[in-house]
Specification:
Layout: H1 2-61, E1 73-75, E2 82-84, H2 85-89, H3 101-108, E3 124-130, H4 138-145, E4 152-157, H5 187-201, E5 206-213, E6 217-218, H6 222-230, E7 272-274, H7 275-282, H8 288-294, H9 305-314, E8 324-325, H10 345-350, E9 357-359, E10 362-364, E11 370-371, H11 379-390
Parallel strand pairs: 3-4, 3-5, 8-11
Antiparallel strand pairs: 1-2, 5-7, 6-11, 9-10
Helix pairs in contact: 3-5, 5-7
C-alpha cells in the first residue's frame, strides 16, 4: 500500500510539472506574437509619416517634374545657362582665344559626320595671311573684299609681339590669331600654317582655305576667285616628284617606314585646299614628327610636308599646282621681288595665264588668281590699275 501511494504521488508531481512547462511555453509564444505585431504597427506608422512629410515638402518647395530637353539645346553644368545650336555654329567676331596649340588642334579636328547641315550654310572662302606684322597691301585687299560680306573669312598670323592699329572699319580688324615665332625654312613655318587652318576650321561655314602672305596681291576680283575655287573638283597644291638636290636630294632615310623616297614630294608653300584636306592636316600626328626631326635646312619643310602627306593619302584630290604666281627665274633661295617700277598694265595682264594649266581636266587660260612677291612700293600703281586690270 505504501508503494502504491508513493507512485501515485510521483505521477501527480510529474503531471503538474508538465502542465507548468506547457503554460510557460504558451505564454512565451503569446508575448513573441505581441512583440512582432507591435513592430509591424510601428513600421507602418513610420512609413505613413515619411510619406506625408514628403508630400508636404514637395508642395512647400514647389518641385516640378523635369521637362524633356529640346533636341537643339544643351544644359551647361558650369553656368546653368543654355547653349543653343546657333551659339555653337556662329563664329566669334573676335578670333582671339586662350587655347594653346595642342588644345586648338584637338578642337579643330572635330567635325560632324552627318553631311546634311541642320542650318542654312553658305560656304565661305577662308583667307589666311601669314605675315611678319603689318599688311602693306591692306588697302588693295579691302577693295577686293568690299561688297562680299558673308562669303569670306580672314585670319592673320603675325609675330607674337606685333600690335596692329587697324580701325574698326577694316576687314582685318580683330582678325589676328594667337601666334608663335616663325623662322624661315623651319618647322615653325608649317606650325603657323596649321595654326591658321585650325582657327579657320572653327567656323563651320569655311569650305575653302587660301594661304597668302603679306607680299601677295589678287589678280582677279572676288567674284571670279570665288567662282573659280568653288567650281573646282580639286584642291590646288603642288606635289611633284622632283629629281636633284632640291627634290629627292632633301629626303632622309630616317623618315622610313612612314615615308619612303618614292613618296617624297615637293610643292609651293602657298595653297588652296578644301575643308576635308584641311582636317587631314590639323589632325596629323603620324608624319609631323618625322618632318620635324629630319627635314631641316637645306630641307625646307614648308615645301615638302603638306605636298608629301596629302599626295600619299589623297592624290586624286590634288590639282598638283598652285594658284599663286611666283617668279623663280632669277634663281636663288628666294623668288624675285617687284616694286613700283615693275607694275604696268602689260605686266599684270600676263600673270593669270603665265603658264599653261588644266582646270577640271580641261585647258584653261587662267591659271593664277594671286601673285607674289611684291614690295610695299608697288601699292600705289596697283591701286591705280585695280579697277581696270583686277576688276575691283
Amino acid at each position: 500500500m505504501k508503494m502504491t501511494v508513493v507512485e501515485i504521488e510521483e505521477g501527480a508531481k510529474d503531471n503538474a510539472a508538465s502542465t507548468l512547462k506547457s503554460r510557460l511555453a504558451n505564454q512565451s509564444r503569446a508575448l513573441l506574437s505581441m512583440r512582432l505585431l507591435q513592430i509591424l504597427l510601428l513600421f507602418l506608422v513610420l512609413t505613413l509619416g515619411i510619406s506625408l512629410v514628403g508630400v508636404h515638402m514637395i508642395k512647400f518647395l514647389k518641385i516640378q517634374p523635369l521637362a524633356p530637353v529640346a533636341p537643339t539645346t544643351l544644359i551647361s553644368a558650369l553656368d546653368h545657362g543654355t547653349v543653343s545650336l546657333e551659339s555653337f555654329i556662329r563664329p566669334p567676331s573676335n578670333v582671339w582665344h586662350t587655347m594653346n596649340d595642342t588644345e586648338l588642334l584637338w578642337r579643330a579636328s572635330m567635325e560632324p559626320r552627318r553631311k546634311v547641315y541642320p542650318f542654312k550654310r553658305v560656304p565661305k572662302l577662308a583667307f589666311m595671311f601669314l605675315t611678319k606684322g603689318p599688311l602693306p597691301f591692306a588697302p588693295l585687299w579691302e577693295m577686293f573684299f568690299k561688297g562680299h560680306e558673308g562669303l569670306y573669312s580672314i585670319y592673320v598670323h603675325a609675330l607674337p609681339n606685333y600690335k596692329s592699329n587697324l580701325s574698326r572699319s577694316s576687314v582685318f580688324y580683330r582678325r589676328y590669331i594667337p601666334s608663335q615665332a616663325v623662322h624661315w625654312g623651319e618647322m615653325s613655318m608649317c606650325e603657323a600654317e596649321r595654326r591658321l587652318l585650325a582657327n579657320a576650321l572653327l567656323d563651320f561655314s569655311n569650305e575653302w582655305f587660301v594661304l597668302v602672305s603679306e607680299s601677295c596681291v589678287p589678280l582677279r576680283g572676288f567674284s571670279f576667285v570665288y567662282s573659280y575655287v568653288s567650281g573646282s573638283r580639286y584642291s590646288f597644291m603642288g606635289s611633284a616628284d622632283e629629281e636633284g638636290p632640291d627634290g629627292r636630294g632633301r629626303y632622309r632615310d630616317g623618315m622610313e617606314p612612314e615615308i619612303t623616297l618614292g613618296q617624297w614630294r615637293k610643292g609651293s608653300q602657298w595653297f588652296e585646299i578644301k575643308r576635308a584636306l584641311a582636317l587631314e592636316i590639323v589632325q596629323d600626328t603620324t608624319y609631323y614628327p618625322k618632318f620635324k626631326e629630319f627635314c631641316k635646312p637645306p630641307c625646307y619643310v614648308d615645301e615638302h610636308y603638306f605636298p608629301t602627306m596629302l599626295s600619299m593619302k589623297h592624290r586624286i584630290f590634288l590639282a598638283n599646282r598652285t594658284l599663286t604666281w611666283t617668279d623663280w627665274s632669277r634663281g636663288g633661295a628666294h623668288p624675285a621681288t617687284f616694286g613700283k617700277a615693275d607694275i604696268t598694265e602689260t605686266f599684270l595682264k600676263k600673270l593669270p595665264g603665265a603658264k599653261a594649266c588644266l582646270y577640271n581636266d580641261q585647258r584653261s587660260q587662267v591659271c593664277y588668281l594671286f601673285a607674289r612677291k611684291f614690295a610695299p612700293s608697288a601699292l600705289e600703281p596697283l591701286l591705280e590699275l585695280a579697277h581696270k586690270i583686277l576688276g575691283l
